[in-house]
Write a structure and sequence with these properties.
Layout lengths: L4 H12 L5 H15 L7 H15 L6 E2 L8 H5 L12 E2 L6 H11 L13 H14 L16 H4 L20 H24 L3
Antiparallel strand pairs: 1-2
Helix pairs in contact: 1-8, 3-8
């Protein structure tokens, strides 16, 4: 993949209704560079999904962040954060990686000690490799036996016959519960918008 930044940002202004701010352009430009050199991205739609997920997880600055602690008693705290916050393995990076097992898994893949140094996930290159590899290989979430087993991965939802950015949210955080369903809808919208930007900027 190869992209022309000027064409990307021209289309971006039309898709999102406003030009990107400076920090967003810089951070997104870095992400596009990662994607151009990522051999595991087989389809442009996969790159669009990654950008959509990043925007949903970290906001328009498009930089890795630490998870924000929800208010005790809130839905997010009771159903998600309460289970892992005290361990120190709360969300970090572009994917908001949680749980010690996930830090250990991706640390082995990348050759880094993410258990001892979890904040390494906040480095853009490390955060990108975790998100991209996890989505392509299906390393974040698996199907239950009732769902047929197997891992949720990009090829399941974005291929030559199917394009479903909303259901692709199953890969990272699932779509169960009100907050997750709202996030899936956002990712679906962002995915279509970023796909248009990437197609406009694509250099053959």
């Amino acid at each position: 993949m190869k992209f022309a930044p000027d064409k990307f940002w021209t289309e971006y202004a039309g898709q999102f209704g406003h030009p990107a701010h400076g920090p967003e352009q810089q951070a997104t430009g870095q992400l596009l560079g990662f994607m151009e050199n990522d051999a595991q991205l087989e389809r442009l739609e996969w790159a669009a999904y990654l950008l959509a997920t990043i925007r949903n997880e970290v906001g328009s600055n498009m930089l890795p962040i630490k998870e924000i602690k929800a208010k005790p008693g809130s839905y997010v705290w009771e159903h998600y954060q309460k289970k892992y916050w005290g361990t120190g393995f709360y969300g970090r990076g572009y994917s908001q990686l949680t749980l010690e097992g996930n830090y250990r898994q991706f640390g082995k893949i990348l050759g880094l000690d993410l258990v001892k140094n979890p904040n390494l996930v906040l480095q853009p290159k490390v955060g990108y490799e975790i998100l991209a590899t996890g989505c392509v290989r299906g390393l974040f979430r698996g199907r239950t036996k009732a769902q047929g087993g197997g891992r949720f991965k990009l090829a399941d939802f974005l291929n030559s016959k199917t394009k479903d950015y909303i259901s692709a949210r199953q890969i990272v955080n699932g779509i169960s519960g009100p907050p997750a369903k709202q996030a899936a809808l956002r990712v679906g919208q962002y995915g279509a918008q970023y796909e248009a930007c990437l197609r406009a900027a694509s250099v053959s």
